[in-house]
Write a structure and sequence with these properties.
5 strands, single chain, 186 residues, alpha/beta, 8 helices, 38% helix, Nucleotidyltransferase, domain 5
């Protein structure tokens, strides 16, 4: 079984983050094989349609430019490419928290698409499991990297860079986490 580390970036605003207005603007993913080695990556910008203009806050936070999303595919096409990249081999989706799968569900609903439940069937919320393992109530990705002695790579709040960092956390911890190893939990 492979692990597929997924991180999304979504449109956001400084004042109020209204969840139903947020749209995926980047999908980043890293595939790890059974031995936790990186096999390949997927990255795609996504053009928002509800609020097509990114806020200055969002552009600064993510380093994603308006031009990058303007020329990108909309969610249905980008998500279809992501699902094709996932393939049919067994995999376990790994995310840092619950946001990413929730955002996929929102975007699928928004575009009249069926959310593929396979994505959530054996989901590993690494943030939650890492916190339990270390006895921490709250732990950020940067906290986890620091605790593991790993430097942050790339730009924070960029989907592909965050997916790479989460993959590094997974490589260091998944073999140690109860119930998170290569076999799905009962």
């Amino acid at each position: 079984m492979h692990y597929v580390v997924v991180d999304l970036e979504a449109s956001c605003w400084e004042a109020a983050w209204v969840r139903h207005r947020m749209e995926t603007i980047e999908i980043g993913a890293v595939r790890l094989d059974q031995s936790m080695q990186v096999r390949d990556e997927f990255t795609s910008f996504v053009r928002p349609v509800i609020v097509p203009r990114l806020s200055s806050f969002c552009r600064k936070l993510t380093s994603i430019s308006q031009e990058q999303v303007d020329v990108a595919d909309t969610f249905p096409k980008a998500f279809a490419r992501f699902l094709t990249w996932l393939g049919r081999d067994p995999y376990r989706v790994v995310t840092w928290g619950a946001f990413d799968l929730g955002q996929f569900r929102i975007d699928c609903q928004r575009h009249g698409m069926v959310f593929p439940e396979r994505l959530a069937a054996d989901h590993l919320n690494l943030k939650s499991e890492f916190g339990k393992w270390k006895g921490l109530k709250r732990v950020s990705m940067q906290d986890a990297l620091d605790l593991l002695g790993l430097p942050h790579i790339g730009h924070p709040h960029r989907g592909i860079d965050d997916a790479r960092n989460i993959a590094r956390i997974a490589q260091a911890t998944v073999p140690e986490l109860p119930g998170a190893g290569g076999e799905p939990r009962p």
